[in-house]
Amino acid sequence: MAGYLDYWCSLDITGSAERDSLTVALETEFEDVDRMVDCLIDERQKRRREIALELVPIEAGIYTSLCNEASNRGLIFTPQLQEKLHDTAHAKAIVIREEREQEGARARMRARQREREAERLQRRLNGEKIRDSPRERPEQTYKADERRHLQLRAQAELFLLKQDLRALGEE
Q: 71: closest CA among 57, 90, 85?
């Protein structure tokens, strides 16, 4: 169930249309589909509340700086201007939050790569033989590919020469 929650909670699950589509997709795999769908909807709503709480301080800071900038320009704060500033602050807050989330994901990925490399190094130090993938040693892969290409070309030339000799021998 955790795998399905991770997958489905990235979708916008807010209303009856989404509930119906989830029901159709999941009814063949789970016996208690209604409970599963309710759980998915609850998880998505909980995640939206968490995101909204993360956006509040970011949006407040941006709104304050936009208000300061508007007052420095001598603009009069009308309800329309305040609404526009709120909308702009909200849009910028979403972008900033997404950038932070992406940076966090990149940092986690780099940490996992460092851990894997440390494990590989430890296994090498312990004497285990480790086969490197082509992307870890591109220059050696290139040389090996070049060597295989030259061998294949030589075999093809030899084959063609043998055919030519047979053709000459038959004449």
A: 85
